[in-house]
Amino acid sequence: MNSPGWSAALLQVIVNGLLVGGVYALSAAGLNLVFGVLKVANIAHGDFMMLGAMTAYAVSLKLGLSPYIAMLVAAAVLAGVGALTQRFLVERVIGSPMFVSLLLLYAVSMVLRNGALQVWGPTYVSLAHDSTVWTVGPLSLSEVRVVVFALGLGLTLALLWLLQKTAFGQSLRATAQHMDLAEACGINVRRVRMQAFALGTALAAMSGALLIMLFSVNPSMGEVFVLKGFAIVVIGGLGSFFGAFTGAMIIGVAETLTSFYATTQLADVTVFLIFLIVLIFRPSGVLGGRAT
Questions:
Q1: DSSP alpha helices (H): ranges in the chain?
Q2: Would residue 285 be called left, alpha or beta, if left means φ above 0 and alpha means ψ between -120 and 50 degrees?
Q3: I want to staple 236 with a disulfide (CB 3.0 to 4.6 A). Which of 15, 203, 213, 247 is the partner?
Q4: Is the distance from CB of 196 to CB of 38 less than 8 angstroms?
Q5: What percent of the chain has a predicted confidence (pLDDT) above 90?
Q6: Predicted local distance difference test score (pLDDT) of residue 148
Q7: What is the pTM (predicted TM-score) of this model?
Q8: Whose CA is closest to 78, among 248, 209, 177, 193?
């Protein structure tokens, strides 16, 4: 085996995994946000991703808009869907045992998935297109992959800035830390919960819209991606945005390495094997216990 060629191929696979990881990080950030503020495990998150992807696809196809503009339209539409879902459904089970919210959001997930199947059918669709390939040393970098990674990373960092540097972010963090105390300080906790869910749903939509620029997806994609999202959050450390980013990079690289050196079907197995190993040996996550 030619060692330099093997090394270059390995480096290429790792870089490709990191580029995909940027999108996963954005999705995990939305999942983390909703859990942190509402204390609800949003198992419909993957189907909100799916709906964002399919909305971006429909908008781009029907109106002839750039996929990046379609992503913003999908985010706005899904933010509204998320706000309504929280206001009329999720808000009613806040403070209830966790299994109640899980059952509710599972029902939401089924409605979204089967509704999308009725509209778009089971066919795989994509906004992926041929793009310029940049050569950097031994690496070949697809322009669209780099742009999608940059958008995913930029949006994740923008969320972090929002949480740490704005009054809105302070109200989100105060509600996440102690709802009753936040309400006593004059924060409209009900409104903050709705805004957090809407924002988390918009982030899911944008990550889905970015994914459809890289891969073919269909209305059943949500089931896999919500499991990956929870795996990323747990691997990185629940509540840690830096941890979620780290977990996303680990998952992205693990998937691409497995797909390249074994089979695509084994990639998901590898993801959940890592998930189990972390749960057994580091249940708080690789960055668990650290500040956001």
A1: 3-38, 45-63, 67-88, 98-120, 143-165, 167-177, 179-184, 189-211, 221-236, 241-261, 265-281
A2: left
A3: 247
A4: yes
A5: 68
A6: 94
A7: 0.92
A8: 209
Cα→Cα distances 70→174, 186, 210, Å:
33, 37, 10
- Residue 256's Cβ-side half-sphere holds a number of Cα atoms within 13 Å equal to 18
- Rounded Cα distance, 98 and 39, in Å: 8
Q: What is the pLDDT of residue 20?
A: 94
CB atoms within 10 A of CB 1: 4
CATH number of 3-281: 1.10.3470
Q: How far is CA 65 from the centre of its chain?
A: 23
* 3-state SS class at 134: strand
Instruction: Name residue 119's amino acid.
Output: V
Long-range CB pairs of 212-215 (<8 Å, 24+ gap) are 212/53, 212/54, 212/56, 212/57, 212/67, 212/125, 212/126, 212/127, 212/128, 213/67, 213/126, 213/127, 213/128, 213/144, 213/148, 214/20, 214/23, 214/128, 214/144, 214/145, 214/148, 215/126, 215/128
How does DSSP assign 28-58, residue by residue? HHHHHHHHHHH----TTHHHHHHHHHHHHHH
Please tell me the distance from the alpha carbon of residue 143 to that of residue 134, in angstroms, as a whole number. Answer: 7
Domain positions in the chain are 3-281
Name the residue among 125, 156, 154, 129 with its Cα closest to residue 144: 129
Express each pLDDT in 96-138 by its tens digit.
999 999 999 999 999 999 999 999 999 999 998 767 888 887 8
Identify the DSSP state of 282: -
9-60: per-residue pLDDT in tens?
A: 889 999 999 999 999 999 999 999 999 999 999 999 999 999 999 999 999 9
